[in-house]
Phosphoribosylformylglycinamidine synthase subunit PurQ
Amino acid sequence: MKAAVITFPGSNCDRDLAVALAAAGADVARVWHKDDALPAGTDLVAVPGGFSFGDYLRCGAIAARSPIAAAIRAHAGRGGMVLGICNGFQVLTELGLLPGALMRNAGLTFVCKDATLRVASRDNPFLGAFSAGERLSLPVAHHDGNYQIDPEGLARLKGEGRIALTYATPINGSVADIAGVLSENRRVLGMMPHPERAAEAAHGGADGARLFRGLMDATAAA
């Protein structure tokens, strides 16, 4: 699998994400936000966490207007896989690739801790290595991870099985404790927790590595 990891000014998880993907077996290329094209043959676009453009205006709003944005949209439009983590999730909502919005956390506090998550949907290439309802542990680190969507949108996500991950216990005010959502074709995943920070035992857990290996397996089987 060929993966392209996007870097914006203020990204701080791009190297970790590239290393975790490479360790899982991906051929990883690094792409600067001012590039206007993805490397030929890209299977997965990975948008990392951090504070793109200092989180000015809204988190991810400026990044979604970078030169590379059109190529990311085009990749998703032709069925390519896109993974957005933390700030990357915010960017994907700003790009219009995922519904809803990420708001300031309830309590107006930065949340940084390990979170227990529940797999709500495994019918996608990202979470096929897990069982439905299985619990996993991944770190979270965000100030604007409070996922919100209107009641009609929430009903649609539930009805279509597009809620990918939920928090086992509330941590940031997200509606329905949502931690990750999928696009209509299930090829785009946005998630607030950081799998790249749980990619080996030395990190305190390896559930993230399992996610990346499952993604490699799903791509190889496609």
The first strand starts at residue 2 and ends at 7. Residues 2-221 form a domain with the Rossmann fold fold (CATH 3.40.50.880). The chain has five helices and eleven strands. The first helix runs from residue 14 to 23.
